[in-house]
Amino acid sequence: MQDSFDILEEKVKKAADLVKKLRRDNKTLDEQLKENKAKLAEAEKKLAALEAQMGDAAGHAAKIDSLTAELETLRNEQDQVRTRVAKIVTLLESLD
After folding, report:
1. How many alpha carbons lie under 13 Å from residue 64 in its C-beta half-sphere?
2. Angle at Cα 84 formed by Cα 78 and Cα 88, nearest 5°?
3. Which residue, of 39, 66, 84, 95, has the fewest CB within 10 Å?
4. What is the CA radius of gyration of the chain?
5. How many CA atoms lie within 13 A of 41 on its CB side?
6. Per-residue pLDDT tens over the stretch 43-95
7. Over the chain, what HEC string results?
8. How far is Cα 23 from Cα 25, in angstroms, rounded to an integer?
């Protein structure tokens, strides 16, 4: 009978030790989870900021494209004016 109680007592001690270990592990995992949630929140903020910057960059790129096209148009107009002025100068020189 004593052996049965000894065996039972040993199993209860093992179970109690296991419960203590599991509680410690659970506490550690809870702390890690909180840390990881904080890191995730920070990473999400950084991602949102980067996405906003990308949006700004895309807007800037569109504006640059627009300005480049406008500059090209102005250069073409300048060339046309230069050509017309050259023709007018040629005509005026021929009047002498």
Report:
1. 6
2. 140
3. 95
4. 41
5. 6
6. 999 999 999 888 888 888 889 999 999 999 999 999 999 999 999 999 988 88
7. CHHHHHHHHHHHHHHHHHHHHHHHHHHHHHHHHHHHHHHHHHHHHHHHHHHHHHHHHHHHHHHHHHHHHHHHHHHHHHHHHHHHHHHHHHHHHHCC
8. 5
